[in-house]
Amino acid sequence: MKIAILPGDGIGPEIIAQAQQVLEVLRQEGLAIETEQAPLGGAAYDAFGQPYPEFTQKLCREADAVLLGAVGGPAYDQLERPLRPERGLLAIRKDLNLFANLRPAILYPELANASTLKPEVVSGLDIMIVRELTGDIYFGQPRGMGVNAQGEREAYNTMRYSESEVRRIAHVAFGIALKRNKKLCSVDKANVLETTEFWKEIMNDVAKEYLQVELSHMYVDNAAMQLVRYPKQFDVMVTGNIFGDILSDQASMLTGSIGMLPSASLDQNNKGLYEPSHGSAPDIAGKDLANPLATILSTAMMLRYSFGLEAEALRVEKAVKTVLAQGYRTGDIYEAGCQKVSCSAMGAAVVAAL
Ligand code: IPM
Ligand code: MG
Question: Ligand 1 within 6 A of 89 CB?
Fold first, then answer.
């Protein structure tokens, strides 16, 4: 199991260090894990002048899975667009064809009070958002900034999906729904946008191959409302790149903190990139304050999806539940009566629980 480790920027190196300790426990117990590091994002710009340099690309192409911290930071905001850290993230997703982004939003009972919603609205919450990750307005051509025929400045992006792109993400989403509660909600804006009217049509067509799954459709504006009104109506949600970006951040806050949420981005063969759903948090970078649990849970997703090690994945997830039950909290999930710990202490607690 060759794992490319990309710590990235901001809190990335701190949270990745904790996930690596978890991997080290499993390695010492006999799992054949090999890791190698490369920079991505701002760190890669500093080292190689590019956010996704060849060195990193080669390592990631050869690896069986990639574990990423986070990218971005104020130091890089003034760079030309193609050199910015976010472009490195988009480039690696596209390069490795990681079209299926799985973002679970699970509420741990111990954190029910950390949510801004009433406990009865979120208790027991367990949603899987399946976000298409390599198409849509993020990558559609034409795109750009320029001057229109009237001589006025303008900017444009293109929302675009091909049939094969929608079909393959539909199959992933239906497959996941089959293994869960067999309810899939496809989110679109079919009342306005042709791209998503098309999306809906393909979803309905693929549904014929998954008769046990109950498919429903929802407009994205309504979905945003329903997520805060009655989120437990959802099991699996599938949507395009831009709607998924927004709804997954929203869903994350139902669970109390985005610092708890892992993600997996998979290709057709379950090679994957695993990263916390949150960003690089420059404001707390280097202070040993970040919550490493999303990255540790991403490592569990790696064991499950790329390596088929379900028992090991469950064991890591159980260790996370244990440390929460023991009362350890980083600042983002802290509440009175619990023990506030640093990023590294939280990592050590997970290792101890393992
Ligand atoms: C995410 C992030 C990225 C995205 C950014 C950093 C490019 O918000 O992974 O959700 O928009 O996809
Ligand atoms: Mg996002």
Answer: yes
